[in-house]
C-alpha cells in the first residue's frame, strides 16, 4: 500500500481536501482550491498530481492540541494545510500557511513547524500501528506562506529574486507568495 493510500485510510474524510477534476484537450487535469475560512479567501493550485499520488489535509480546522499543550513556546500553532505527494518524480511534503494580511514571520514559522510536527506524528503512527518502518521516509519538505495582498500588475516574477535560488526546505526559509493561482511545481 502506498503512503498516500495509508494516509487516506488513517485520516478522516472531513479533514481531507478533494481535488477538482477538469478535462482539458483530452488530458485529465487536477486542481486544488484551498479556502482560508477565517479570512474568507481562496488560493488555487493548478497542475496537481493525480488523486492517488497526493493527499491534502486541512490541518487548521481539524488538528487542535490546545487541550494538551500550554502553548508557551508556540507549540499549539499549526499551518492551514499540508500537501503530501508521492509521484514517480518526487516525494514532497508541502506545508502551507495562508494569511489575509501581513503577519510577523515568527508566528508563521511556528505554524509551519506545527505542521511538520503533525507529519512526524503521522509517520510514527504508520511505523508503529501499521507496521510500515519506511512510512513517509525520504520526503522533501517545502514551506510556503501565502498572503492575500494586492500586488502591482507590472510584477511578472512569482518569486523575489532573493528567493529564486533558495530552497524553502525549512520554516525559516519559507517561500512567500501572493494569493494568485500557482502551479504545483512552482510551490515545490
Describe this structure in words.
- 21% of the residues lie in helices and 29% in strands.
- It is an alpha/beta fold and 188 residues long.
- The protein has a five-stranded mixed sheet.
Sequence-ordered SSE layout with sheet pairings:
Elements: H1 3-10, E1 20-24, E2 27-36, E3 41-46, E4 54-58, H2 59-62, E5 81-86, E6 91-99, H3 105-128, E7 140-147, E8 175-178, E9 182-183, H4 184-187
Parallel strand pairs: 3-9, 6-7, 7-8
Antiparallel strand pairs: 1-2, 2-3, 4-5, 5-6
Globally, the shape reads globular
Sheet with most strands: 5 strands, mixed
What is the N-to-C succession of helices and strands? HEEEEHEEHEEEH
Number of beta strands: 9
Q: Level of helix content?
A: 10-25%
Q: For this entry, what is the oligomeric state of its chains?
A: single chain
Query: pLDDT average, as an integer?
Result: 87
What fraction of the residues are assigned to beta strands by DSSP? Answer: 25-35%
Uncertain segments are: 150-162
Adjacency order of strands in the biggest sheet: 4-5-6-7-8
Structure characteristics:
188 residues, alpha/beta, 29% strand
Q: In short, what is this structure?
A:
The chain is an alpha/beta fold and 188 residues long. It has helices spanning 3-10, 59-62, 105-128, 184-187; strands at residues 20-24, 27-36, 41-46, 54-58, 81-86, 91-99, 140-147, 175-178, 182-183.
Amino acid at each position: 500500500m502506498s503512503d498516500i493510500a495509508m494516509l487516506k485510510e488513517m485520516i478522516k474524510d472531513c479533514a481531507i481536501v478533494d481535488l477538482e477534476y477538469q478535462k482539458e484537450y483530452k488530458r485529465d487535469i487536477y486542481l486544488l482550491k484551498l479556502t482560508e475560512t477565517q479570512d474568507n479567501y481562496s488560493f488555487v493550485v493548478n497542475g496537481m498530481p493525480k488523486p492517488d499520488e497526493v493527499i491534502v489535509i486541512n490541518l487548521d480546522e481539524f488538528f487542535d492540541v490546545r487541550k494538551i499543550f500550554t502553548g508557551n513556546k508556540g507549540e499549539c500553532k499549526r499551518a492551514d494545510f499540508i500537501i503530501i505527494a508521492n509521484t514517480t518524480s518526487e516525494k514532497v511534503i508541502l506545508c502551507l500557511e495562508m494569511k489575509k494580511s501581513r503577519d510577523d514571520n515568527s508566528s508563521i514559522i511556528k505554524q509551519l513547524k506545527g505542521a511538520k510536527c503533525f507529519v512526524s506524528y503521522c509517520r510514527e503512527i504508520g511505523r508503529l500501528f501499521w507496521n510500515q518502518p519506511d512510512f513517509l521516509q525520504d520526503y522533501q519538505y517545502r514551506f510556503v506562506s501565502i498572503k492575500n495582498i494586492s500586488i502591482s500588475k507590472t510584477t511578472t516574477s512569482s518569486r523575489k529574486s532573493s528567493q529564486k535560488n533558495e530552497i524553502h526546505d525549512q520554516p525559516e526559509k519559507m517561500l512567500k507568495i501572493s494569493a494568485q493561482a500557482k502551479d504545483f511545481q512552482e510551490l515545490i
